[in-house]
Design a protein that fits this description.
Blueprint lengths: L1 H11 L7 H28 L2 H6 L4 H31 L10 H15 L8 E2 H8 L3 H13 L3 E4 L9 E4 L9 H7 L8 H6 L14
Antiparallel strand pairs: 1-3, 2-3
Helix pairs in contact: 1-2, 1-4, 2-4, 5-7
Length: 213
C-alpha cells in the first residue's frame, strides 16, 4: 500500500525533484488515509443502506464514484504533504506576500548569488537559498525560473544525480540593466508608466545599484 501511495505521489506531483524521504512521508500519509477511508466508508454504507434502496442493482456505481473522489483527495493531500516537507523541516518563516513580493525575492536571490560568486563552491541550491531567505522553496521556484529565462542566473547540474542542482549568477552587475527584471516582476513599461520610468530613471539603473556589496 505504501508503494502504491508513493507511485501516486510521483504521478500527482509537479515536474520537480522530490527527495525519497519526503515522498515516503507523503506515501505513508496517503496509504494510511486510504486504509482509514476504506474502513469508514464500509461502516457508513453498512449503517446507511440508502444507495441500494435508491439505485437497486446499480448501487455500486455511485459507491465507486464516491470512493474514487475520496481516494483522489487523499492522494492529493499526500502530494501536498510531500511538497511542504522541506519547509516544515527547515522551519522557514512565512513572510507577508505583498505586491512586489516576487521582485523583492528576485533581488534577494541575486544578492545571495553575488555574495558567493567567488566562493570555492559555486552557487547555491534551492534549499540553501530558501534557508537563507527564510521562505518556502515553492515561492522561490517561479522567481528562479524568471531569472533563468532572463539569463541572469543559470543551473549547474551536479555529477551525482542525487545532489541538488546549484544556481549561479550569470549577469554582469556593472553592465546588466535592471529594466527587464523591473518590467517582468514589478512595473510594466507602457504608456501609462512611461513618465514614471523616465522621472525615476529606472531605465538607467544597473544590477550593481541594488546589490549589497
Amino acid at each position: 500500500m505504501v508503494a502504491a501511495g508513493l507511485a501516486a505521489i510521483y504521478r500527482a506531483g509537479p515536474n520537480t525533484q522530490v527527495k525519497w524521504g519526503h515522498a515516503l512521508t507523503g506515501g505513508i500519509f496517503a496509504a494510511a488515509g486510504i486504509e482509514l477511508a476504506k474502513k469508514l466508508l464500509t461502516i457508513y454504507i453498512g449503517m446507511v443502506p440508502t444507495y441500494s434502496v435508491v439505485y437497486g442493482a446499480f448501487a455500486t456505481v455511485p459507491i465507486l464514484l464516491v470512493w474514487i473522489y475520496v481516494a483522489w483527495v487523499i492522494v492529493l493531500l499526500g502530494a501536498v504533504t510531500a511538497a511542504y516537507m522541506p519547509s516544515l523541516l527547515a522551519g522557514v518563516e512565512r513572510r507577508v506576500m505583498a505586491y512586489g513580493w516576487q521582485f523583492q525575492l528576485a533581488l534577494e536571490v541575486l544578492q545571495q548569488l553575488h555574495r558567493v560568486r567567488a566562493a570555492p563552491t559555486k552557487g547555491l541550491t534551492l534549499t540553501q537559498l530558501a534557508a537563507l531567505l527564510r521562505v518556502d522553496p515553492l515561492h522561490l521556484e517561479p522567481v528562479l525560473e524568471t531569472l533563468t529565462a532572463l539569463d541572469w542566473a543559470g543551473q549547474i547540474t551536479e555529477a551525482q544525480a542525487a545532489q541538488e542542482a546549484r544556481y549561479i549568477m550569470l549577469a554582469n552587475p556593472d553592465s546588466r540593466l535592471l529594466a527587464p527584471l523591473l518590467h517582468t516582476l514589478l512595473l510594466q513599461r507602457d504608456a501609462s508608466t512611461q513618465n514614471l520610468w523616465d522621472k525615476a530613471r529606472l531605465s538607467s539603473m544597473t544590477l550593481r545599484d541594488v546589490l549589497l556589496n
